[in-house]
Write a structure and sequence with these properties.
Radius of gyration: 26 Å
Strand content: 15-25%
Oligomer: single chain
Largest sheet: 7 strands, antiparallel
Number of helices: 12
Order of helices and strands: HHHHHHEEEEEEEHHHHHH
């Protein structure tokens, strides 16, 4: 038990050290990207630094598998060079038994990533997107879906607009059905309402068909001045990619809210495949992080005098990237409905664990 605690502490120290290095690099790269994105826009360095810090939790969550591999490599290469691993095996403890403590620590980190880091990353990424929209167009553009349909909010220097639609369609374009636009002045009061049979999002504008417009002015009956238009164009800062990404972007939703979001999407008639797969992938994250520890250990649990340490490290990292790519590929197949959701989410982590256990057994007893 004392030896297990020692291995667990050494692994956690390696993880925190490497995590700190990666966090610093990620923030520097993201800060440079923010400087490029907001070139020519009047915002301060402190605001760009705040955006960088808000993006950091999401970035760390994405590189956790790589951190696990690197932490395992640092741990076992250090143990091999100090001959501690040799002494451990001389006491009768197998290499796989020595790997139990780091694997358990990786599983606990995975659980914390799902239960704590996931909601934090979702909240900070949404806040970063809102601030970015404010800086670029004067107001945030948000989207939500409920049993009543789809709600959009777009901002500009002329004020905010709230859009409600009961239906959504279009494979390669964004089309809303039974649409209502409610526009607000910069001071906050409503100034216009538009009802339309459909709205098609094109370059920098909504193209409405069969629209009726009410001007909302104080002391005036809106119906008396209402006008009808067979076709009407409304400027917008939204893009088709942004709307489609928001409709299918589960990364901005806390794992605790995902089940309710999936139910709301179903009630509104939207596809839930992407959200279902993402939910299961997040639940399977602790197993995948354990698999990454096994990947790192399968190539580095050897005495330093055997040589070939550099090749072993490169092999571990390449296998880790290959398994990560397979997991992402299975996730895409699941989102497209080509394989079952559970297989897309749980298949790669379980297969990775079995593969690396086979490699470890071959190294230990082969």
């Amino acid at each position: 038990m004392i030896l297990d605690r020692y291995f667990a502490r050494r692994f956690l120290q390696s993880f925190l050290m490497i995590g700190g290095v990666f966090l610093t690099l990620i923030m520097l790269i993201d800060l440079i990207e923010q400087l490029r994105r907001f070139e020519g826009i009047d915002i301060s360095f402190a605001q760009m630094l705040a955006l960088t810090m808000l993006n950091a939790p999401t970035a760390i969550k994405e590189v956790l598998p790589l951190l696990m591999i690197m932490s395992t490599i640092v741990l076992f290469i250090g143990l091999a060079r100090s001959s501690e691993l040799v002494v451990t095996r001389a006491t009768g403890r197998s290499g796989i038994r020595a790997l139990a403590a780091p694997a358990i620590v990786a599983f606990i980190i995975g659980v914390l990533a799902v239960s704590t880091l996931n909601p934090i990353a979702a909240a900070t990424s949404n806040r970063a997107q809102q601030l970015s929209d404010n800086y670029r167009s004067g107001g945030p553009a948000t989207l939500s879906i409920s049993g009543e349909g789809l709600w959009l909010r777009q901002g500009s220097t002329q004020g905010q607009s709230v859009i409600h639609a009961t239906g959504y369609g279009g494979a390669n374009e964004v089309i809303l059905f039974d649409v209502t636009f409610l526009s607000y002045a910069p001071e906050g009061g409503p100034v216009r309402r538009i009802d339309a049979k459909s709205a098609r999002l094109e370059a920098n504008e909504w193209r409405l068909s069969d629209a009726k417009v009410w001007e909302l002015r104080s002391g005036q009956n809106p119906e008396s001045t209402a006008t009808r238009h067979e076709e009407l164009q409304i400027p917008t800062t939204l893009t088709q990619d942004r709307v489609r990404e928001s409709l299918g972007r589960p990364a901005g939703i806390s794992i605790y809210d995902l089940p309710d979001t999936i139910r709301a999407l179903r009630l509104a008639g939207f596809s839930t495949k992407r959200h279902e797969v993402w939910y299961q992938v997040e639940l399977a994250r602790p197993l995948f992080l354990m698999a990454m520890v096994l990947v790192g250990a399968s190539f580095t649990m050897r005495h330093a005098r055997f040589g070939g340490t550099g090749i072993a490290v490169i092999s571990a990292v390449l296998l880790g990237f290959a398994l990560y790519f397979i997991r992402n590929f299975a996730q895409i197949l699941g989102e497209n409905g080509q394989i079952p959701v559970l297989l897309a989410a749980w298949g790669p982590p379980i297969a990775s664990i079995l593969l690396t256990l086979g490699l470890l057994l071959h190294v230990e007893d082969g």
